[in-house]
Design goal:
seven-stranded mixed β-sheet, 8 helices, alpha/beta, 12 strands, five-stranded mixed β-sheet
Amino acid sequence: MNARWIEVADRVHVRRHEELDLSLGLIVGDEACLVVDTGGDETQGAEWAAAVRTVTPLPWTVVLTHAHFDHSFGTKAFLPCPVFAHPNCVDELVVEGAADKDNWAAYYDRQHRPDIANAIRATRIALPTTLVSERVTVDLGGRTVEIEQFGRGHTDHDLVLRVPDADVVFAGDLVENGAPPAFEGSFPAAWPTALAGLLELTGPDTVVVPGHGEPVDAAYVAAQRADIAAVVELAAAFAAGSITLKDVLRDSPFSVETTSKALASLTGRNRSAR
């Protein structure tokens, strides 16, 4: 798969993939490194692990920002190693993992991409081993990484990583660049609160790495938070009967399709969709 490196700060790297506009992360310390997400199947995971080894030979720890296939299905290629994730990430991989494999393999079949479809089908889902339910710190030797969850948003288990000495934050899919927020199965009403927590980690020069798209700054995150909050407010007004669906779709900062997905999640429909 086509991919390229970006070094967003000293020894903080992002691997940018053309497929799904995916961003994977690598944080290097003096004694160890930390891998942020593992890709969408074992083949991509192995390619990602090999790319990491072109940068550093240090032992690695893996952190999964959330359970969705493109961020977590490549984990097997990195084992044995510690794999950090929120407890609900483990639950989702156990409950939804097999169905996600089938659904995404079928998606790539429809896209006439049998290479990816077959790689997803052949993937063995590896479960996280170290659960993060409160703020933890990982020592890489001369550099620490803080891992935290700020509540429900894109999922009910999004993890955010901060590299304090480099002023870099990895946001997972709480932040999207180049595409609207992925509302299917999400928690839009709580999402602005999660982003407010993320923004507390940032300053004017902070680099924020989204799960998809090029790195952004805190101002971009604040603007995306405002857009999500606006949709939530419109949905509340619609539910109260003070505005019509036509008003919601007209005034939303997102497209009709994206707004409809947000409304579906806000009303409890489509909870398990991806």
